[in-house]
Amino acid sequence: MSGVAPTESADLELMSQDYFEELRGVLARDCKMYKKTLECYQYAQFLEYKDKKIAEAAPIYNQLCDERNHAQSCLSAGMIALNTKGAVGGSGAEYGPLAFKRFDQACSQGEAKGCQNAGLLMKEGGHGVSKDVPGAVRYFDKACEGGERNGCYYMGLMHLSGNPVGDFVPDKMQALIHSSKACKLGHPWGCANASRMCKIGDGVPINLEQAENFKQRYLKIQQGELS
Questions:
Q1: Which residues contact 79 (CB under 8 A, 6 or more apart)?
Q2: pTM value?
Q3: What's the first-to-final CA gap in the chain, in angstroms?
Q4: Suppose 183 and one of 28, 29, 76, 190 were both cysteines; which one would form an S-S bond, judging by CB atoms 3.0 to 4.6 Å apart?
Q5: Interatomic CA distance for residues 7 and 65, integer angstroms
């Protein structure tokens, strides 16, 4: 019996290779011949993640983003520009503006992660992107509205900081609202911040019961019982 498993494993590996080769062919055909948006996106994903051919995936993402307003492609194009520092699908040292442009396009098409990433670039600044805290807040707000927990967390954090910047005036009640939403969406530090605010009355009424509820949710998320 000990000799069976390796044979089965080899057969499965071969079947997997055959399946992926067939899938690659189908996606490539449907993208190149029939110009199907979803299939082109999936083909680019295949090239990026399965084949590790990022340089071939990037132009497909860029084209889908510019010509078809495909939100996920805009997001992927932005991530490639950011992660490769402009070496692929970018412009060298000034890769920030291209990444920001793609994230902004994704955000405009309803992709909440695009809003979050655009906000992070504006919050930190650098690499050709101007620091703009009020602008970052607007992107985080859109990300949170779209159900992106990190966007809610960053909104809570910005309001919690207590530092007015430009036309942005922090509001502790808004800090609690956004931290609470981040917590409900599964962000542990959103729970931690909400719990702390309720426990000590940091700009909001003390509510020990709520503080304990947020704490327990924090612990369950950290232990993998909730997500």
A1: 99, 117
A2: 0.86
A3: 41
A4: 190
A5: 45
